[in-house]
């Protein structure tokens, strides 16, 4: 029996095309995820009482005990676990408008902190993906089409400036699901391959829920297609 995505027919050709583009972006997503996980591990060693990420503050010991291989295992999601308000249409419309009118003649500030650099890499990656393929951007960032249009319209100078100005908006996906993160941290540390794979599947369901929320009503089936493409890309 032939798989629907085996390349047969127009639908199969379209799936193969997006799988290839998605696979290329997924490799970069892994790298960005690992940078963010490294930052969370560093933050877990900080004794400050206030903390930007509640799931890091709640599980400092688990984060601090992740060795480099465990950090890499934890990063292997087929999408970006760093969120820069990619689902917030109103925020991005305002940011794009301000970027066009207020920042077009302003020299972009240079990144000075780890947050600035990570925000810049995140937004630069998103900008490159949306300019190449909007559907892959949705799959990688859970990004509504309107947000993709706003980001694609930015110049590189505006991307740099906006990234640094919004660096404090960086967040870890599913930070309102502490149980999921606790189990992910434990499975990555052990390592427990079976548990980690099951938890990645659960995380994909949360991510696809974000996609459903992000897509217009006519695009409701897309999250199911996206999950199939993410699975196929990771197997290649």
Describe the structure.
The chain has one domain. The protein has helices at residues 9-44, 54-58, 60-64, 68-75, 89-101, 114-132, 134-141, 145-152, 156-165, 178-189, 193-214, 222-235; strands at 82-83, 171-172. The protein is built from twelve helices and two strands; from the N terminus they run ααααβαααααβααα. A two-stranded antiparallel sheet has the order 1-2. The chain has 236 residues and is an all-alpha fold. Mean pLDDT is 80; it is low at 1-18, 101-106 and 217-225. The longest helix is centred in the first third of the chain and has 36 residues, at 9-44.
What is the SS-derived class?
Answer: mainly alpha
How does the overall form come out from the CA principal axes?
Answer: globular
pLDDT average, as an integer?
80
Q: Supply the number of helical segments.
A: 12
Oligomer: single chain
Please report the distance between the alpha carbons of the first and last residues.
20 Å
How many separate domains make up the residues? 1
List strands and helices in order, with pairings:
Elements: H1 9-44, H2 54-58, H3 60-64, H4 68-75, E1 82-83, H5 89-101, H6 114-132, H7 134-141, H8 145-152, H9 156-165, E2 171-172, H10 178-189, H11 193-214, H12 222-235
Antiparallel strand pairs: 1-2
Helix pairs in contact: 1-4, 1-6, 1-7, 1-12, 4-10, 5-8, 6-7, 6-8, 6-9, 10-11, 11-12
């Amino acid at each position: 029996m032939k798989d629907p995505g085996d390349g047969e027919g127009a639908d199969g050709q379209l799936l193969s095309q997006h799988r290839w583009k998605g696979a290329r972006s997924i490799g970069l997503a892994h790298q960005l995820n690992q940078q963010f996980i490294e930052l969370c591990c560093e933050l877990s060693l900080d004794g400050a009482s206030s903390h930007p990420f509640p799931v890091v503050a709640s599980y400092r010991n688990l984060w601090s005990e992740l060795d480099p291989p465990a950090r890499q295992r934890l990063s292997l999601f087929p999408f970006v676990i760093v969120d820069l308000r990619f689902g917030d249409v109103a925020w991005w419309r305002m940011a794009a408008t301000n970027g066009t009118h207020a920042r077009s003649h302003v020299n972009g500030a240079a990144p000075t902190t780890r947050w600035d650099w990570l925000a810049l890499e995140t937004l630069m990656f998103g900008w490159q993906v949306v300019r190449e393929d909007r559907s892959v951007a949705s799959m990688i960032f859970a990004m509504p089409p309107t947000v993709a249009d706003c980001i694609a319209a930015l110049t590189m100078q505006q991307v740099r400036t906006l990234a640094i100005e919004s660096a404090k908006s960086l967040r870890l996906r599913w930070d309102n699901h502490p149980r999921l993160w606790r189990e992910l941290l434990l499975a990555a540390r052990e390592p427990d391959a079976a548990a980690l794979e099951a938890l990645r599947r659960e995380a994909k369901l949360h991510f696809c829920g974000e996609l459903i929320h992000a897509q217009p009503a006519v695009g409701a089936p897309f999250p199911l297609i996206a999950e199939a493409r993410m699975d196929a890309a990771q197997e290649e």
